[in-house]
Design a protein that fits this description.
The protein has a three-stranded antiparallel beta sheet with strand order 1-2-3, with no helix packed on it. The protein has one helix at 2-27; strands at residues 59-61, 68-71, 78-79. The chain is α+β, with helices and mostly antiparallel strands. The protein has one domain. The protein is globular. Strand 1 (59-61) and strand 2 (68-71) form a beta hairpin. It starts with a helix and ends in a 12-residue tail after the last strand.
């Protein structure tokens, strides 16, 4: 069972790395104000390993206690409990 869990973790990290590389390649050809599509950053409407958009430095809530908001990097409405590979904890 441990080997299966390790393989999954390695595979997930590989997918995140590939998505980040894609993001860098795509973003290098965009104007500074353009946002990336959700699919390119593997955006999902649920947390990932305890990380969620509400704790990300790129997330801006719509209002006090709002369940959604916007992201400086990802286009469209972003759920507070969502997550993507561009997640960066607030400092």
């Amino acid at each position: 069972m441990q080997a299966c869990s390790t393989r999954r973790r390695i595979l997930a990290q590989g997918i995140r790395l590939a998505a980040a590389c894609l993001l860098i390649a795509v973003d290098s050809h965009k104007p500074a104000t353009a946002k990336t599509q959700k699919a390119a950053l593997l955006y999902q409407n649920r947390p990932h390993e305890g990380q969620h958009c509400g704790d990300c430095k790129y997330f801006s809530p719509e209002g006090s206690g709002a369940g959604s908001g916007t992201c400086a990097l990802v286009e469209g409405v972003i759920e507070r409990d969502g997550w993507c590979v561009a997640y960066a904890a607030r400092t």
